[in-house]
Every structure is written in C-alpha cells, then in structure tokens.
Amino acid sequence: SQQGEEDPQALSIQEGENATMNCSYKTSINNLQWYRQNSGRGLVHLILIRSNEREKHSGRLRVTLDTSKKSSSLLITASRAADTASYFCATESGGSYIPTFGRGTSLIVHP
Amino acid sequence: SQTIHQWPATLVQPVGSPLSLECTVEGTSNPNLYWYRQAAGRGLQLLFYSVGIGQISSEVPQNLSASRPQDRQFILSSKKLLLSDSGFYLCAWSRGNQETQYFGPGTRLLVL
Predict the structure, then answer these.
(1) How far apart are CA A62 and CA A55, in angstroms?
(2) pLDDT digits (tens, 9 = 90+) for B20-65
(3) Mean pLDDT of all residues belonging to chain A
(4) What is the DSSP string of B11-25?
(5) Residue B100 touches chain A, beta carbons under 8 Å
(6) Contact list, B88 vs chain A (CB under 8 Å)
(7) Contact A45 B101 (CB under 8 A)
(8) In which band, very low, low, confident or very high, does the pLDDT at A1 lie, cut at 50, 70 and 90?
(9) How many CA atoms lie within 13 A of B87 on its CB side?
C-alpha cells in the first residue's frame, strides 16, 4: 500500500502563479522527499526533509513538514511552463529505509 | 560526478519471451540499487533492491528476478514475459539508507 498520497491529483495554473501540492502519510517517517518527473523520463530529486526539520528551501521551491498532521507541502513560486511535470513525494519510515512513493500530482503550467 | 545508465530505452517483446534490462552506475562505489516499475498514471512500485553484490531483496512476488553481478551493475530479468509486465521500469541508486535516490532515464517495456 502507498504510504504517501499526493493531493491534488492534477493541478492546472497559469505561468507566474504559485503551485501548492500536498502529501499525506499514515505512519511516522524518518524523512520525506519530493521528486519531479517529466513525461516519459526518470525522476529527479528536488528536496529531502528529515523528520526533525520543518521547512526547507531550494530556489523557487519551498517544502514544509508537519509531523503532527503527518503531511508535507511543496510550494513552487512564480511557476513557469517548464515546471509542467508530475511531482511525487516519497517517505521512509521505521526500519525499512526503503522509500515509498505516492501516485503523484500532475502539474500543468500554461504559458 | 555520478551517472546512472539504463538500456534499452524502449523495448517491445512478445509474450513468453525472455527479458534482460541493464542498469549501471558510474562514479560511486557500493551503492544501494533499486528497480521500480511505474504503471501509467500511477506511482512507483519497488520491485527489488540491493545493498551489495549478490544481495537482492524482493518487495513483491512476481514474474521477474534481479541480479547484481558487479558492484555497480543491476539487472532485471524474466524467463517468460507476461502481458502484465508492460510498464516503465526505473533503476535508481543511493549512497545508503535514508539517502536521496538518483534515477536512471527508464526503460519503457511493451509486451504484446
């Protein structure tokens, strides 16, 4: 079963707007990672946030983690058409050390 | 710098034929290696992972097998492909547990 579940499944916005995607999970985690996948390509790692961290930034990306709510959000500010892709969260929990991926959010940014 | 290669990029195979997909990593040693399958519109399903040569762990029962004959080589195989084996196969590596995974470009397999 999937640990992380992204929400919404699909998001369509205009260039320049901000895009927010959420990830919820069920059990305690060691860390949570966000990945991006362009159509038909491999996944590209964006940000890793550990369970003792609350917020991380990378360029136009901002990731927050709320362990009390078992959720994370990925914010892309001032979106560009090139941000069009699917975004996945992956969680590692317990002693497995194997990341579990959600089904992803499909983001379309219209120029 | 590290790079990960997968081939072939696309493969069309008849039902019942064998399969061999190869993944190699350069620029690092003793990586963790992973094979995932991604169905259309779905997330990634972990198939196998390996923490060292000859050490393979399987996450789900299936028609596939994996081998790690060398430190930076990971092979996904099948003796007889099924229609349900169609999908996008991704190889990934990480430096260890709880570390970032780096993905290859993927192989799209279509079984007819």
Answers:
(1) 7
(2) 999 999 999 999 999 999 987 778 889 999 999 989 998 876 789 9
(3) 91
(4) EEE-TT--EEEEEEE
(5) yes
(6) 40
(7) yes
(8) very low
(9) 21
